[in-house]
Amino acid sequence: MPQTIWREIWILVGIAITSLVLGLITGRLFLIAAIGFGLYIFFTLRHLQRLRHWLRNRQQAEIPDAGGLWGDVFDEIRQLMKQTENREDRLNDMLTRFQSAAAAMPDAMVILSQESDIEWANPSAGRLFGIRYPRDAGTRLFNLLRDPDFVQYLQHGDYSELLEIDSPENSEIKLSIQVTPFGSLQKLVIGRDVTRLARLEQMRRHFVANVSHELRTPLTVLGGFVETLGHMDQIRMEDLKKYLATMQEQAVRMQRLVDDLLMLSKLETAAPRTHDETVDVTALLAGLKEQAELLSGEQHHVITVETDKSLRLLGSREELLSAFSNLVNNAVRYTPAGGRIALAWKAAPDGSACFSVSDTGEGIALEHVPHLTERFYRVDTARSRASGGTGLGLSIVKHVLLRHDARLDIESEPGVGSTFTCVFPTARARRVDHPVSGIA
Ligand SMILES: Nc1ncnc2c1ncn2[C@@H]1O[C@H](COP(=O)(O)OP(=O)(O)OP(=O)(O)O)[C@@H](O)[C@H]1O
Ligand SMILES: [Mg+2]
Q: What positions does the domain Histidine kinase occupy (predicted)?
C-alpha cells in the first residue's frame, strides 16, 4: 500500500485514540469522537470541493495544492495534465505541418462530408476549383462545381477511373479528378492541373496524324505503280524507266521524311553535350555554298558569302551543319531563278555570333512567321510537298539552336525576300589568329 494511505490510516487511528482518551477524561466520548471525525470529513470534503471547482474552471484556475493523500491525487492529475498538454502540442504541431504541406500542394484538395458538403479545402482549391476555405465551408460542392460530368462521377460512386474536366475558374486549365472515400463516408477530392499533359497528348495525336498523312501520299503512288506494273504483260522500256523514276522519287521522299524525323527525335532526346568542338563556320560556308549552287542548278541564283574568318563557334559541327544547310536549302527553293542569296557569318556589335541567310525570294506573310518552326508547318503546303519538302526543316533548325543556347530571328517581306539569322551567345564565340574579315 502506498505510504500516503498509511498516513491517512494513522491520522484516523490518531483521531480515534485522541477522542477515546479525551472522551474518557471528559466523559463525552461520543461528542469528542464526532468532532474529531467531523473535522476529518470536513477537510476531505473541502479538498473534494476544491477539486470540483478546479475541474469546472480548468482554464483559469490553478490545480490546488495539498498534502497527504490529496496532495498525491492532485500531483497525479497535474502529471496527467502535462502529458495531455504535450500530446496536444504534438498534435497541433502535426496539424500545422499538415496544413502548411497541404497549403503548399499544387493540387487542389477538398474534404467532403457524407452529404458532399465542403468541410475543408486547401488554397489550390481556390485557384483550380474556385472553392475558398473557410468562406465556403458547409456549402454543397455541387453549388460551386456544376460540371455535369463531375456531378455524375461523384454521385455514381465508382472512382476507379480518373475524370478529366475543365477548371471552373479557367477553361484553359484541364483538371484530372481523383476521389478517395475515407472515414465515415467522407470523401477526399483531389484535382490536378494536367493542362501540359493534355497539350502534349494533343501534340502527339497531331504528330501521328501528320506523319501518317505525309507517308500516305508516296505510299499510295508507289502502291499504284506496283499494281499497274503487275497487271501489264508488256511495257516499253521508255515507259518503265519513267515509272521507275517516279517511284524512286517517292521512295526518296519517304526516306527524307524518316531521316528528318529521326534527326528531330535525336535532337530532342539526346543528352546535353558535355564537350563542344570549336567549329570553323567559314569552312562550313564553303561547303554550303557548293551545296546551294548544286541545288540551284539551271536556276542560276547569285550566291555570295561574307565571313569573319577568325570567328569560331563552340558547338556540334554535325548539328550546326544540318541547321545551316536547311536554311540554305530553303533560300534556294523559295527564291525564283536568278535571285540573290547571301550567306554571312560575323559578330554582332553586342558580341554575339550571327549566321544569316538572306534571299530575294517570295518572302513570308507576317501571320505565318511565328508558326514556321512548328513541325510540318508550311506556308504553301501543296508547293512545299511538290518540291519534296517535309515541313520539318525549320523544326530541326529550332532544336539545334536550342541545344546551342541560340535563337532564330526571322525577317521577311512578301515579294521582297527573307533573312533567317541564327544568333549565338557571346559565350559560344571564339577568336583565332586569322585575318579579321573577308569575302570568300
Ligand atoms: N527562305 C524562305 N522564303 C520563303 N518561305 C520560306 C523560306 N524558308 C521557309 N519558308 C516557308 O516555311 C515553311 C517551312 O519551312 P521548313 O524548312 O520547315 O519546311 P519545308 O522547307 O517545307 O520542308 P523541309 O525543309 O523539311 O524539306 C516552308 O514550307 C516555306 O513555306
Ligand atoms: Mg525547308
A: 210-428
Assess whether pLDDT exceeds 60 at residue 361.
yes
Q: From the CA of 408, how far away is ligand 1's center (Å)?
A: 14
Three-class DSSP category at 303: strand
Work out whether strand 340-347 and strand 302-307 pair parallel, antiparallel, or are unpaired. parallel
Query: What distance in Å separates the CA atoms of residue 115 and residue 58, rounded to the nearest whole number?
Result: 36
379 lines ligand 1 (CB under 6 A): yes
Angle between helices 317-333 and 393-402 (to 10 degrees): 150
**pLDDT tens, 175-208?**
999 999 988 789 999 999 999 999 999 888 988 8
What are φ and ψ of residue 354, in 5° steps?
-120, 130
Residue 440 has pLDDT above 50, yes or no: no
pLDDT exceeds 70 at position 276:
yes
CATH of domain 105-193: 3.30.450.20
Amino acid at 309: K
pLDDT at site 1: 64
Residue with CA closest to ligand 1 atom 13? 378
Looking at the CA of 378, name the nearest ligand.
1
Report CA(364)–ligand 1 centroid distance (Å).
10
Looking at domain 197-269, its CATH class is mainly alpha
Neighbours of ion ligand 2 (CB under 5 A): 330, 393
What mean pLDDT comes out for the span 120-128? 91
**What is the pLDDT averaged over residues 270-295?**
91
Least confident of 55-59, 319-323, 350-354: 55-59
Mean pLDDT of the chain: 90
Tell me: pLDDT of 307 over 90. yes
For ligand 1, is residue 390 a contact (CB within 6 Å)? yes
Question: Quick one: pLDDT band at residue 435, thresholds 50, 70, 90?
Answer: low
Q: Name the amino acid, one letter, at 117.
A: D
Positive or negative CA dihedral for 366, 369, 370, 376? Answer: positive
Q: Would you call 387 helix, strand, or coil by DSSP?
A: coil
- Give the rounded distance of the alpha carbon of 259 from its chain centre: 31
CATH class of 277-439: alpha beta
Name the phi and psi angles at 418, rounded to 5: -135, 155
